[in-house]
Amino acid sequence: MASASLLFFVLMMSSLRVGKSVDSLFTLKCQPAVGVIGQTTIISCSLEARTENKPSINTVVITKFGQKNPSFTFNKFDNIVTGDTRFSFNNAPSLELHNTMISDEGEYSYFIRTSQGPASIRFTLNVTAKYFPPVITTGQKEIIDNGPADLYCTANGGYPAGTIHWFDLRNTNWTKNTNLSITQGDDGLFTLTSKLTFSKIDSLWGQYRCVVLNSRYQEEGTSTSDLKIKDAPVNPPQAPDSLVKNIVAAAVVIGSLIVGLLIVLLLKRRRFQQLRRASAVPILNDHQTEDDDYEEKDALNDSASVYTKAADADLSCPQSFPH
Predict the structure, then answer these.
(1) Which of these, 74, 65, 67, lies nearest to 96 by C-alpha position?
(2) Per-residue pLDDT for 1 more than 50?
């Protein structure tokens, strides 16, 4: 490792000695590279020479920024290859990186030494991973028309973090009603979970479609829901709170009716008693006076007295029996 660092230092010093004369001979150019995790990434580079003779490459040194030691070195004369063996130099000056990993993402310094002198350039390597097809699930065992509903769309295995959008069959975007959750696993890959919430779902809106977009807003996968929305019952069951409120209301109404009925009965009873008392008072004829009424009472009392005396006399006389 120390020899590789020394080689890199010597090459850099020799490139400084040539100065601007090198730029006049050829130019090294590299395109930004985008690799897919687990696949081979092509780092496309080219030499633009100002002479008819194309320079031959003798030495290659690749160093990732932030690291002290080179990631890859190649010396043609000494046939020395050090560093990450996943790099290859088959189509010079382009590079290949096999079995690309998330840790490979970053910016690199690319130095070469040719038969016409040295050159160096920087290039970036971005890493991506395509998400698996999304899956839609529901938060309820059954969804009733005009009732609450939660729809979930989950996609995993992607990199870097993307997003999820929701659409209906009319292509209306429902993403504003969603909540996106992003988690990163130990392998560095992301899982996206989007929750679409309805307070009252309408079966007329039809099926729903979730679309997975990568970090560049490119569509990577889609899935369409197969919801079975049941019709709302004619007399839907009431919630316990509503049922209690209805029972209390009914009790109040019935109690009011009973109190009202008792009041009516009490008033009728009082009226009946007043009529009864009124019927018990004797009614005088037009020609009858109070004195006549008293005389009739005295006559009745005298008759009763005479009858009583006669009865007593009859009891006091001895009875005679026939012989």
Answers:
(1) 74
(2) no
